[in-house]
Amino acid sequence: MHDPAAPTLLLIHGFPLDHTVWNSNVEALREVAPVIAPDLRGFGTGPSTATAPSMVHYAEDLHHLITARGIGSVVLCGLSMGGYIALAFLERWPQVVRGIILCNTRSTADTDEGKQGREATAIDALTKGSAVIARAMAPKVLSQHTRTTDPELAKTIEAMMARQQPEAIAAASRAMAQRPDRTHVLRNANKPTLVITGEHDTLMPLPTSEAMAAAAQRSTLVVLPHAGHLSNVEAPAPFNKAVIDFLRTLPDA
């Protein structure tokens, strides 16, 4: 059983996914800490969103959630877009964050080219539907090794993306385009930090993870072999071990 005083592990899913992306992690992680894996607004069972939120709005939703549940301290674990949200949360409420886990993400802002790509994704979602986005994205988020050895996982991920609301995909894509560089947040927070990435993550190449690990004052970098952008589902056992080891080394509050 986990330590009753352990902070709650808050799992923040990526784009355009929902909380079920954590299905291969939650049970193992609950052995060492309380875990919550909510849906972000517009995704899965989360409340719908009519306007484009910012990373801060998603973070505010999560802060409201833990406040409502009486949770006093958390370890943030953000995957991809979830990492952007985790950094926005850390910037606003550092006092409740015991540690931060950044998975297959970056702390920097989008380039102009990246922002144009986000807008194209938003327009495609609204005009062509979520299934088109899913077909384009699914091959990019999983490594060739994963797609070859576990074609069922590839189908599951594509189906997860395809069932999301086009409006939520568009809103999140535009919100990501507007996020600022938050490397300074990581540098100034002085929180225990775990950076996890996949050996074959082409969306977030290794230097982006190395830069975050270098910026954080107390950091560990873990690179998972054979995994791509969704390292938590592509390599769940080593991913879970890395998170558990990190949680067990956190200093007492």
Spell out the helices and strands N to C.
EHEHEHEHHHHHHEHEHH
CATH architecture classification name of the domain at 8-109 and 180-249 = 3-Layer(aba) Sandwich
Cα radius of gyration in angstroms = 17 Å
Query: Per DSSP, what share of the residues sits in E-state strands of 2 or more residues?
Result: 5-15%
Shape, principal axes of CA atoms: globular
CATH topology of the domain at 8-109 and 180-249: Rossmann fold
* Poorly predicted spans: none
Distance between the termini: 19 Å
Report the CATH C-level class of the domain at 8-109 and 180-249. Alpha Beta
Q: Say how many strands there are.
A: 6
- Strands ordered across the widest β-sheet: 2-1-3-4-5-6
Give average pLDDT, whole number. Answer: 94
> Helix/strand/pairing class, anyone?
alpha/beta
Helices and strands, with pairings:
Elements: E1 8-12, H1 26-29, E2 35-36, H2 55-68, E3 74-79, H3 81-92, E4 97-103, H4 112-128, H5 130-141, H6 144-149, H7 151-162, H8 166-177, H9 183-189, E5 192-198, H10 206-215, E6 218-224, H11 231-234, H12 236-249
Parallel strand pairs: 1-2, 1-3, 3-4, 4-5, 5-6
Helix pairs in contact: 2-3, 4-5, 4-8, 5-7
Can you give a write-up of this model?
The protein has a domain at 8-109 and 180-249: Alpha/Beta hydrolase fold, catalytic domain (Rossmann fold). A 6-stranded parallel β-sheet has the order 2-1-3-4-5-6, with helices on both faces. With 253 residues, it is an alpha/beta fold. It has helices at 26-29, 55-68, 81-92, 112-128, 130-141, 144-149, 151-162, 166-177, 183-189, 206-215, 231-234, 236-249; strands at residues 8-12, 35-36, 74-79, 97-103, 192-198, 218-224. It is built from 12 helices and 6 strands.
